[in-house]
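Listing S7. Sequence submitted for prediction.
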Amino acid sequence: MLGIKKLDIFILKSYILPLLITFFVTTFLLLMQFLWRYIDDLVGKGLEMKVILELFFFAATGLLQMSLPLAVLCASIFAYGSMGDTNELIAIKSAGVSLTRIMMPLIVFNIFLMGFSFVYANNILPYSNLRLWSLMFDVRNQRPEMNIKEGVFFDGIDQVRLKISSKSKDNNMMYDMMIYDHRNNAGNTNVIIADSASMKVTDDKQYLVLTLYNGESYEDVIDKSNIEEYRTKRPFRQYSFAQQQVLFELEDYAFSRTNVDLFKHNSQMQNVWQLDYMIDSLSVDIAERNRRSFSQYFVNCVFKTRATKDTLNDTVRISRDFSTLTAVDQSTIVLKALNSARSSESYLLAAIQNKTDQKISLNKLRIEWHKKFTLGFACLIMFFVGAPFGALVKKGGFGIPVIVSFVFYLLYYVMTMIGEKGVKAATMSTWFGMWFPVFIILLIGIYLTYLAVNDKSLPSLKPFTNEIRQKLLKKRLKMKQ
């Protein structure tokens, strides 16, 4: 029994170190990808190091849901592949210990890891997302004058509207700038057009200096002492310049934080119980609104009567026979009936689309609900894929484990994205869209575990590759002939 306990400790040590290494490396790479994606929102904002570190911390915390399954997969392949490469696996089996017993300590460990994954997804991840995206909102709104987009009027400077056609990525030059200056509260009375411009902020962070090149200024001269004469004559001044500087006062430069409670109603910032409450409340509200909308339309547009509580239960009676009416009356009735039918068709089509939109809104909440559970199951099934695969290939080092882990995880990630998009588009049921990737990877894990437990080898690809090689040789011979 003592030997078995030492064996369990040995297997855990062989697994935990690669798990930690892979986890931190994967998280770092994903964090760099996050930084590259949002670099434009961070550069030039004058953020303190404390704010940047806080942003990176919450971003890294949120990336654990992607890095943890990959780390489990890679570590399990590495641990059992290394034991197979050094013949330790054969020695343990020769002592009468089955592969299932060898896997048992890591199965227990990954069950606990699955429980931690649920706690993380249900409690830590919502809080991390809340702090991350509220902070990103504040960062994006810090120094909005640095976010001038091409071809769009920018209103980040108080009482000033400006637009550029393009800007250089190598320096801070902007081209074809148009400025509408409303600081005198007199409408579009001051317009500046320049071929190019550069921008900088003063050292005290209080003013924005625009240096304009090769442009023209158009300004209405306002005589406030005689408004009536000004409205009649409207004196106008125009001048050209080769270089001109325009100074704009900036708002408070200090970094301000928005109340995080404004973001807590987002589905990514809620736990299972909050999502359950929102799903139930929204389902009841949607059903009630649909019932009320249908009742009102049916009463007011079909029966053409006033809506009362028991109107829909009344029987519609036709007091006159249609054949006794005149041709004009019959034609009028038919036209009204056709118009009513077309109106009903339009209403029903709009109601169907509205029903789909409502389902999509509910599905977004259901996706987040299912994600709380799929993360833990993904970690567990990744172990059942990696451990038997490592025992079958018997290759140590980080080369084979990293490559195979990337392939399996990429397969799982692509299927997950397909399932989420299908659920969001309301073309898949929530259960199927969110769980079929887990089910497929589970089948692969069961198959690989069956092969490893029964000491069978992986199917050889040589017949397939030889057939492809022969076909290529035949095509080459035909081309030479």
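Caption to Listing S7: primary sequence and predicted structure tokens for the chain studied. Residues 27 and 265 are 27 Å apart (CA to CA). Confidence is low (pLDDT under 50) at residues 305-317.
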